[in-house]
């Protein structure tokens, strides 16, 4: 630290291989002075009258007094806070300018570094693409019949492309996964004769590569069939609705009242059933009387 003017020289060590200059910073530590002691004495004296103050808040004038006192105290604090913030802004200006300039320079380094990173990232993506292409080719070779039904992408695991995993290990893991699919398929085929919806289960197996999901799909189809069959049986066993009775024609309303007379109706020939029907029809219309059979009935 320099003894003159209190200036302090700070050297930021930078690892260099080509002789670039070090970052040399010279600054003078700031000293902020304020009449804190006098201010504290003044504030204590002003606040003393309000410490432990009690107000009868059942009265409107006391509520107003309490609010005014609090407004006064908050005003004292606001004056000090505004001054503190103003000093802080001025104090931080050199630091803000220093940091801004440092970031402008380091952004030059970032630009070069980012360019290298982009190339490294692209090289890694290219390596993964080549590794995945090899695994896909291997799959389509040793699982020639399965490949059109189950694309390689459904079997792929991200960790197979990691450098630490290795191509040989990845191929063995792929083969193990294909073998598991084959075993599940054999298990499913063994139930074919007893499974009403085998095709549904088989399709689900090759879609999800999950035997449990395949069996659940077949079971769900069975349950759906049962619900439809129950509905069909209920509909077919339900009796046909009876036709609604025809409404009896209302007798015509005469324009004027008619006179009632005694009538004799001669029926040359009729069975007893026919006459009973005739009598019933007459009674429905309010006609009463006697029907006699002249012969043997």
Describe this protein's structure.
The structure is a single chain. By secondary structure, the chain is mainly alpha-helical. Among the domains are: 4-130, no CATH class; 158-236, no CATH class. Strands 1-2 form a two-stranded antiparallel sheet. The chain has seven helices and two strands; from the N terminus they run E-E-H-H-H-H-H-H-H. The N and C termini lie far apart (150 Å).
Our Rg estimate from Cα atoms comes to: 52 Å
Structural class: mainly alpha
Number of helices: 7
Give start-end ranges of low-pLDDT stretches: 1-5
With strands numbered from the N-terminus, the spatial order across the biggest sheet is 1-2
Report on the biggest sheet.
Answer: 2 strands, antiparallel
Distance, first to last CA: 150 Å
Mean pLDDT: 86
Proportion of strand residues:
under 5%
Q: What is the number of beta strands? A: 2
Order of SSEs, N→C? EEHHHHHHH
Q: Gist?
A:
This protein has 297 residues and is mostly helical. The protein has helices at 36-48, 60-142, 152-155, 167-189, 198-208, 211-237, 272-284, and strands at residues 8-12, 23-27. Among the domains are: 4-130, no CATH class; 158-236, no CATH class.
